[in-house]
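Box 3.1 A note on notation
Throughout this textbook, protein chains are presented in two layers. The first layer is the amino acid sequence; the second is a token string describing backbone geometry. Keep the layers aligned when reading.
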Amino acid sequence: MNSQKLSKRLETVASYVPKGSRLADIGSDHAYLPCYLAHQGMIDRAIAGEVVKGPYESAVKEVKKEGLQNSIVVRLADGLDAIRESDQIDTITIAGMGGPLIVSIIEKGKTKLTNVQRLILQPNVHAKAIREWAVNNEWKLIDEKILKEDRKIYEVLVLERGTVNYSDVETLMGPFLLKDKNLIFLEKWNSEVNQWRRIVDSLNLATEDQTMRKEELEKLISLVEGEIGQ
């Protein structure tokens, strides 16, 4: 993967960035995503934010190597602190983290969302946390994608402003993904159900906490199986 050729995961994220966007890519690593989008003529300007010095330095080198210093600014900052009001950012991408961490980054930087019209989020795990946050903060999903790369399954969630309510199963599994129910989706949830069953089977019911955990897992199993037809 490089600035000319993204991974399938980041290529999917890139496909949702509107043409002419002013982008903030948070946790940008080598800044491959904003560099790729700049080369494609898809963005007007980008901020590549990194909180760790090593990846920050890698991003600086990549932007310089690609000759994109006039359109991409790399900043060493924690989360959305990389964004300044003068940047007039309208699109944010955050990829390659857990859902709860992505939520904490957005929640902590809420004041930076004033001009933002679209969030493109790629959680490695626990996408449910993002859907819950969206409902509680007047954002709604406009699309979702599930994909498999290097034997790992990823979800990409695209949000814009709006009010919406999701059922328990939509919050867990994704309203758009539920409509499609492609093979990767079925693989993911069959795997989750099998893992939950193993945990249920191993639980010692001697304590109240373990009984509650067993009941919680059995509810999840029932919810998911109702959708995947086991």
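Residues 31 and 121 are 16 Å apart (CA to CA). The first strand starts at residue 21 and ends at 26.
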